[in-house]
Structures are given as structure tokens and as C-alpha cells.
Write a structure and sequence with these properties.
With 226 residues, the chain is mainly beta. Helices cover 5% and strands 49% of the residues.
Length: 226
């Protein structure tokens, strides 16, 4: 029996891509590891023990294994990279939104028969330093009940100005699955905050915090004049 499932799915929700294209049906997700050369620096003061320092670091060989799907775009790219012997960019994106990005020289793309299932194996040698990153927890929308935010809201912009014509005002932050506070008070995503009283002739500060766990919190600030 040849495995011919056409709907590619990431193994345990870890998405693997090559040059931005998802590799479908991955069952074994590699993790880049590094080792360092050992440089001996033993000397007359080493008290009879060899001493070492770490030298240049080297990435390991990673292997993607999965169910072979002849029409899968990511698998096709892996096979083409192996044929051409190119170095490509791979990204692993985890359910937490953390990512690992690394360059790797694609060495082989092989077919494996496994109990009647046709699988693939793609081996690549990590080149250079992998990058580990966590996506920031961000708002997807932010509005104010009086005035206009400047600049226009964007998830990656964290500081805003506004001039309000009335007091009090409310702000409505949106971030699915996040814990949100406005000036320290909890707010439900997509719903207006409590009333915020503005002092006339002063710059009033509104602080919005967005968190998905105890370790990662993002802050937005609005300076409101009246």
C-alpha cells in the first residue's frame, strides 16, 4: 500500500517550512543542535589535568522524516534542493509561536518503505548559527472612544497619541486568548474598558498590557490630551 493522503498536516502542530513553504506530513521534527571544537590549553599550572576551551561551533545534521506525498510543495522543494545541493532556510514554528530558523545544506532526499507506507527522509547539514525567537504577544486591534489614535494602529507599534474631546473615555483592546489589562484593570478582549477620566490641560497616560503566560507581557501606551 502506498500512502497517498493529500491533506498535509504538521506533526503535533509543529510547522516545518523550507524557504517559506510548509513541508507536509512531517512525522519526525528535527531540532538543530550545536557542538564546539575542543581546544587544549593544558599548561604547567594544570595540576596534572588536561584543560580545554571551546572553539568554533558547528551545527549538526538534521533529518526530516514524514509520509511521502508526491504533490506536496514542501517535499518537492526538499527533493529539488537535494538534487541541486543548495543551502536553504528552514523554520520550525511551535504551537507556542516560538520559532527556530536555520540555514542548512540539503544533502539527501530518500524514499523509505515502512510497513507498507511510503515515507521520505530529507537530511540537511546546519550551516551557521540557528536563530531562536518567540513571537511577541500583541493586540490585533485597539480603538479609543474619543479622538483618533496617531499613528494608525499596528500590532507592532506600541506608543500612540490622541486628543480627546470628551471625558471620560474608554479604550477597546483585542487579542484572542490573551489576558488584557487597561491601567491595571482586567478587560475582556474586544470589549471596552471602564471609564478613564481625563485631566484637562494635561497629558493622560493609558497603559494596556497583553499577556499569554506569566513570562511574556507586551505593553502599549496611549498619551491622551484634552
Amino acid at each position: 500500500m502506498v500512502y497517498t493522503k493529500s491533506q498535509a498536516q504538521a506533526f503535533q502542530n509543529i510547522v516545518c517550512t523550507i524557504d517559506g513553504t510548509a513541508i507536509g506530513e512531517v512525522t519526525k521534527v528535527p531540532t538543530p543542535q550545536t557542538t564546539a571544537d575542543e581546544i587544549e590549553v593544558t599548561n604547567q599550572d594544570s595540576q596534572g589535568y588536561k584543560e580545554y576551551i571551546a572553539g568554533l561551533k558547528e551545527g549538526n545534521e538534521v533529518e526530516f522524516v514524514g509520509n511521502y506525498v508526491s504533490t506536496d510543495a514542501g517535499q518537492i522543494l526538499c527533493r529539488a534542493a537535494a538534487d541541486a545541493g543548495t543551502t536553504n532556510t528552514f523554520v520550525l514554528t511551535f504551537p507556542s509561536a516560538n520559532t527556530v530558523t536555520f540555514s542548512a545544506a540539503v544533502k539527501t532526499f530518500d524514499y523509505i518503505e515502512d510497513g507498507g507506507v511510503l515515507r521520505f527522509s530529507c537530511k540537511a547539514k546546519v550551516s551557521g548559527k540557528p536563530t531562536y525567537a518567540a513571537d511577541p504577544v500583541q493586540l490585533s486591534a485597539l480603538t479609543i472612544s474619543s479622538g483618533t489614535l496617531y499613528p494608525t494602529f499596528a500590532a507592532g507599534t506600541y506608543n500612540y497619541f490622541a486628543t480627546a474631546s470628551a471625558s471620560p473615555i474608554t479604550v477597546t483592546p483585542t487579542s484572542a486568548g490573551a489576558t488584557i489589562t487597561v491601567n491595571g484593570t482586567a478587560v475582556t478582549s474586544g470589549q471596552a474598558s471602564g471609564n478613564i477620566t481625563l485631566t484637562t490641560g494635561a497629558i493622560n497616560e493609558v497603559i494596556i498590557s497583553v499577556a499569554k503566560d506569566a513570562k511574556t507581557t507586551t505593553f502599549y501606551k496611549i498619551l491622551v490630551g484634552r
